[in-house]
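Deliverable D5.2: sample structural annotation.
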Amino acid sequence: MKTRKKYLLMIMISIAMLPIIIPLFIIGLHSNELIRKPIHYLSFLLLFLTLVLCITFTILFLKKKEEKKEKQKLRIKQIFLILFIVFEWIFSSTFLCLLYGPIPNFRNWLIPTAMTTMNHQYFAKWFYSKEEIDAVLEQNQLIETNETTDLNLIQIGENENTTVYENEYEKEILTKEKDNEIYKIIRIEKKAYKGYLVAIYDPSKVKVATTKYLNIKGQYVTDMAADNQAILAMNGGGFDDPDFNSNGGTPGGIVIQNGKVVYNQTSGKSTGGLIGFTKDNKLILGKMSAQEALNKGVRDAVSFGPFLIVNGKKSFIKGNGGWGTAPRSAIGQRKDGIVLFLVVDGRQLTMPGADMVDLTETMANYGAYNAANLDGGTSSVIVFPENVSKKYLKEDEMKTHCRNQYCYINDPIDGGGDHATRWIPTSFIVK
């Protein structure tokens, strides 16, 4: 019996080595180059030796004879012990192979996704050195066309009476609902994400709304929609979030409302480019100052990016675009003037979200001639009045998704895993 206990103790010691290996990897990552590789080799050696020891002592443990009356009890314990050993070894080795193995898919997903979030960059920094992170980001990036929208190419109302469609997407856009001449809601369902695309037929109705506490604190998009009695609304541009937990009150870059500059951040981190509508209701995308925007006749605008499509030309996307996979929002305009609002969900095990490739492809499929990425993650919401929302929400969701008689019909998930959105400074509304 004492010999069996010794074998059991050795098995438990071997198992206890498995959780030590991953921290050892992390220590190696944050060491200099001379130390890093030996530590990694040592970790893999320990992983192999642990498996050998576990198997060896388990076999010896099982071979040791006991009294007949103890055999049945021991057999059950033995089965659980073997399953536990196998599971822990498979988990540890699989995790390490995903992080550092020869197939880069997991790294290419994890690093860009973590590095573009507000408060989860540590997921990448724990496991990878700065050099490794930079190398992955270099292989996954989006290079914009560096053009400004040519407004002359947008012909509003061009396809108003079209009955011959280029493809199924155009038919879906141009076939209006009988009781709604203002917009049409289209469900988007893909393997990695789902959401809604809304076609707005009159671009003159698209405007920028801001929190009524601008530069102090943000508001929910439902509140901004209610304050403006909007027909529908979607989140807008980015905002300063230095502590990763701000109140969303300070926009990043330029905000223009009704032809007036209401906010203009000229310093700090780059916020992309200007995304706005001119007085003749054309979506304009470009890198420009507030004064340059006014000179071009911009009436409503926010700042963000990257630009996905400009003048019908897609941005060059390498890998997944460098923004990782997450809930996303985008705005676009077709050549015939129809405006597209797109919001997709993510942050779920079976549906992680969309990357820049997915976003560009969806907007292009539905005919976007100009399109830009908007603030994503927890900010991504599409909002309608309660009477419209109840067609898309379950009864219990009506209680959690609605405020001030407006509801978001998609399913945002915050960094803590809760099904909730957050305060932001700007939104696009249809009024």
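Annotation notes: Residues 216 and 249 are 5 Å apart (CA to CA). The mean pLDDT is 83.
The annotation will be released with the project's public dataset once the embargo ends.
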